[in-house]
Amino acid sequence: MEKIVVDPVTRIEGHLRMEAEVEALPNDVHGYGEVTRASSAGTMVRGIETIMRGRDPREAWAFTQRICGVCTLVHGLATVRAVEDALNYQLPENAHLIRNLMLGAQYVHDHVMHFYHLHAMDWVDIVSALDASPADAANLQRSLSDWPNCSIEYFTRVQQKLKAFLESGQPGIFGNAYWGHPAYRLPAHANLVFFAHYLEVLDWQRQVVKLHAVFGGRNPHPNMVVGGMACAISARGNNRKSAAGKDNRSSHALFGGLTAVDWNGLETVRTVIGQMQSLVDQLFIPDTMLIADYYKGYRPDTGDLNDWTSVGEGLGNFMTFADFPGTGATGMLVPQGALLDRDLSTLYPVDPQAPEQIQEYVSHSWYDYSVGKHVPLHPYDGETCPNYTGPSAADGAYSDEHFDVDASYSWIKAPRWNGKPMETGPLARLNVMMASGNQQALDLVDDTLMHLDLEMSALYSTLGRTLARNLETSIFSNALHGWYDCLVNNIESGDLDTFNDEYWDPLSWPGEARGVGLVEAPRGALSHYIKIENGKISNYQAVVPTTWNGSPRDASGQGGAMEQALVKHRVFDKEQPLELLRTIHTFDPCIACAVHLAEVKK
Ligand code: NFE
Ligand code: MG
């Protein structure tokens, strides 16, 4: 047995190390080996939870939101929801609608960015685009959709740009990859099309973040507020009274820093929603289908030894938290629940407040618990006591030394639902939506599998996880229109309320309170747990999507979804483990989130 170590894994947020134990392939198969066991480690410690103690719960969101710079909104949202849960807040409908719009826009932005800028180069060989015929690229683009940039001249210019960039001697973001690896299957002109889209999506991102700026003042890290949204609506530019008779602007003066949303702002939001929809429909989904078409099935004649629709499943256990209130038959666009062993016939209820249901282990993480290293804790009673026990060089830097996975090897804790490791994220959501009868989800999956000539089992794989992320994006880009129309209807009928100030004064709070803030973040189920005593935070714990997906082993040795997903992967070249990156990236791991402030080395 040998180990392949990828450290750091790039094109992710934060610091991740993956180790794969590999056995040699049988003599009749070319290539290096097959993965028998894998380990994932978060190699950065964060201490957000410890700095929350003693703070005012109303300002907590501004700290937690800095947990991450990719999911720029969700931790702030989880915090305000946790405080609102603890204090039994009722929110005005407009606050829910604006939150839905901001979270929905985060999904579309984040998923599209992940695909083109973080994941695509696992499938697309940028350097090969230099050899492409621009005419073939133009033909391919025209066959995919009505996207306007499809001329031979356009792809000629893009190719010249790529050539100048690579010849500059400073290829920057394209400098360090496995270009030329035989597991790349796309023809050169398809690679050129993807490079063009890489650049186009950079520009698109700059436009679509404006939605967050309109409602939250800026992006990343838009403003939030406990009790609603930190934006006052100024209908047609005057101080119209809300339906409740309150002056909408003055109520916001309570917390300062307000953003005023006027009709120009709402028009910007409408434009952004349209830009999101057309990119998803005309670029993102067709490109996803193109990748899937090339990468389904075995192609052992090449250097690609894996069928990407059959490797990379991971656990087959999925969990979601409910989100997008006021939408769909159940009142939540994403329902809450758990599925085990791919069985969509039983959707188990999930209660994040139940101590026996959600527990975090630190058996193989660099933390101690006062109750003992192998006893799990529910997050309300969670503890963050770092205890780094190596392996490392004497100065604390990482070396090539392999982890001792029987001891502690990660800064990520190991959360479990009813003792089981669960996958969260797009594949979990799509499955839970299907299990709960969401027709759009069922149709999307049916149509896609039929188009690609694949069975349902193909969904539980590396390519299936990418399909799930990209397909669900159309559910959210569609839903944005409905939330926008509802908000505009409310405003036109005089309802300008975005904020409930009923419990703003801490003197109105009980001596002790606790609550959980649940969000379905782009990467999966997110929960923040808060305990409040005498107006201050007495304990705070965040259990994050990548904490679930990227967890190390628990007390009984069960690994997390990413560890499990690498098993059975065939690797062509141990110096270029492209195959492992393909699957790791399908989880869109975020280690900044998972371990929640880099510790400055003394
Ligand atoms: Ni830092 Fe995050 C999302 C959250 S993931 S990206 O989505 O919450 O663990
Ligand atoms: Mg945590």
Show unreliable segments.
Answer: 237-247, 249-257, 597-602
Mean pLDDT: 91
**Helix and strand composition category:** alpha+beta
Helix content: 25-40%
CATH topology, by name, is Cytochrome-c3 Hydrogenase, chain B
- Please give the radius of gyration in angstroms: 24 Å
Major sheet strand order = 1-2-3-17
**What is the H level of CATH, i.e. the homologous superfamily?**
Cytochrome-c3 Hydrogenase, chain B
Number of DSSP strand runs: 17
CATH architecture: Orthogonal Bundle
The percentage of residues in β strands lies in 5-15%
Please report the distance between the alpha carbons of the first and last residues.
38 Å
Number of helices: 17
CATH class: Mainly Alpha
Molecules bound to protein: NI-FE active center, magnesium ion
- Identify the overall geometry: globular
Describe the sheet with the most strands.
Answer: 4 strands, antiparallel
Task: Outline the structure in words.
The chain is of the alpha+beta class and 602 residues long. It has a single domain (2-364, 407-594), classed as Cytochrome-c3 Hydrogenase, chain B (Orthogonal Bundle). It is built from 17 helices and 17 strands. The protein has helices at 48-51, 60-64, 74-87, 93-119, 134-144, 152-167, 188-208, 210-216, 248-252, 263-295, 426-435, 439-452, 462-492, 545-549, 561-565, 578-586, 591-595, and strands at residues 2-6, 16-24, 33-42, 231-233, 259-261, 318-320, 323-325, 332-334, 337-339, 358-361, 367-368, 385-386, 414-417, 512-521, 524-533, 536-543, 570-571. Strands 1-2-3-17 form a 4-stranded antiparallel β-sheet. It has a 3-stranded antiparallel β-sheet with strand order 14-15-16. A hairpin with a 6-residue loop joins strand 7 (323-325) and strand 8 (332-334). Helix 4 packs antiparallel against helix 13, helix 6 (152-167) packs across helix 7 (188-208) and helix 7 packs antiparallel against helix 10. The longest helix has 33 residues, at 263-295. It starts with a strand and ends in a 7-residue tail after the last helix. Residues 237-247, 249-257 and 597-602 have low confidence and may be disordered.
